[in-house]
Amino acid sequence: MHASIIVFGTELLSGRVRDSHVQYLSRELRLLGVEVREALVLPDDPVLGREELSRMIERGGVVVVCGGLGPTSDDHGRELLASCAGVPLVFREDVWQALVERYPHLSEVPSNRRQAYVPEGFEALPNPAGTAPGLWGRVGKTWVAALPGPPVELARVFGDEVAPRIRAISGRGSDNGERMYTTYLIPESALEDALAPWEGRLTWATQAQPGRVFLVLSGGDEETIRACVASLEERFLPVLVFEGEKDLFVLLKEALARRGLTVGFAESCTGGRIASSLTKVPGASEVFWGGVVVYSNEAKERLLGVRPETLRTFGAVSRQTVEEMVRGVFEHMPVDVAAAVSGIAGPSGGSPEKPVGTVCVGVGRRDGRSRTFRALLRGDRERIQHKSALLAGLLTYILVEEEDWLDRRELADYIENKLT
């Protein structure tokens, strides 16, 4: 089966907003065994949109339409679908009532009713992350899915509603012989080097993000794939490789929630990124008590009780300082788990002893001792801050889920000598 993707959004073509739709959908469709043959990003122009959508529908397969389902005058997605299908738009009272029940304020603005119009014969797909429902239907020999534009909403509607329908019509079920893995803090180049011995037995594709790489393995049987993953875990560390598409801070939230634990953070160089990453996860309030950004030495002393002599002797970026920051979290927050980070994000502030990219992280439990680590991270200021937050999040996850690993020399060696 093949697919085409069409994304509507003038803002995407102006450079004001980065498109992530094609990347996400291409990956997800591939995992469903669907070959993406074409992807277009178009302005909110109904004439051009109808022309290109009609052409894609003529090709058959599956067409995924992104955007244009909102309540504004430039949201033409429903009208385009109805026009290409040759059917009228029908106001669905059940869809409207479901929207108003969830969001009563929608009834105050008449234009919101646009979101309850559905091309005749199409299904309205629930959107648990927003208001505009998705759409699913058939036009001739082609299946068409329409998804809301905001990335979080798009992912929920696609994953919950569209993906199962594509599996059903493709007849491939949920297993197409491919496996996805997520790795954290392993450079893409190092991952490619580790995969080289498997060439001829497996095929793979990687998608790199700062601090994270998605890996898709295919072309071999289950035993071969498992053996390949085991070799990656041996070369790197098992605690850096996760099966499936995983978000580190979702994993952390779930691990804390399973154990009924709460966490607090003390951040310096990351400036609140760790707390921000965790609070993006739905339900974070179950596990996150709070955090503090202690950027200056004075803040570390006054808010966390870090001793002046520790700062004078070892400096703000030191294992000793982050250990006292962890202790300070426990003294000022009623939490079970704490993490602290301090580093030099650059571009200035480094020294021969502590170059730019030097980062120290401490993690601990209230009922146990803390552990500290030092790393030297590469990149510009943004990347160093991002990877520092990932490192702190990962070590907190390991503390909660795989605590024995914190005392293993392999982990300390990787962080101190191999992590970049």
User: What value does the average pLDDT take?
Assistant: 94
**CATH architecture group name of the largest domain:** Alpha-Beta Complex
- The CATH homologous superfamily of the largest domain corresponds to CinA-like
Q: What strand order characterises the main sheet?
A: 2-1-3-8-7-6
- Major sheet size, sense and barrel closure: 6 strands, mixed
Q: What is the fold named in CATH at topology level of the largest domain?
A: Maf protein
Helices, by number, come to 15
Protein name: CinA-like protein
InterPro entries: CinA, CinA-like_C, CinA_C, Competence-induced_CinA, MoaB/Mog-like_dom_sf, MoaB/Mog_dom
Pfam family, one: CinA
Family: Belongs to the CinA family.
Structural features, described:
The protein has 420 residues and is an alpha/beta fold. The protein has 3 domains: 2-170, MoaB/Mog-like domain (Molybdenum Cofactor Biosythetic Enzyme, Chain A), CATH 3.40.980; 179-243, Alpha-Beta Plaits; 248-418, Maf protein. It has 15 helices and 17 strands. The protein has helices spanning 10-13, 21-31, 46-58, 77-85, 93-102, 151-170, 188-195, 222-235, 248-259, 273-279, 297-304, 308-314, 319-332, 381-401, 409-418, and strands at 2-8, 35-42, 62-66, 89-91, 117-119, 123-125, 134-139, 142-147, 179-184, 203-209, 212-218, 241-243, 263-267, 288-293, 337-343, 358-365, 370-376. The strands form 4 sheets. It has a 6-stranded mixed β-sheet, sandwiched between helices. A 5-stranded mixed β-sheet has the order 14-13-15-16-17, sandwiched between helices. Strands 10-11-9-12 form a 4-stranded antiparallel β-sheet, covered by helices on one side. α3 packs across α4 (77-85). The longest helix is centred in the last third of the chain and has 21 residues, at 381-401. It is globular and about 75 Å long. The model has no long low-confidence stretch (mean pLDDT 94). Residues 4-168 form the MoaB/Mog domain. Pfam families: CinA (PF02464), MoCF_biosynth (PF00994). It comes from Winmispira thermophila (strain ATCC 49972 / DSM 6192 / RI 19.B1) (Spirochaeta thermophila). This is CinA-like protein.
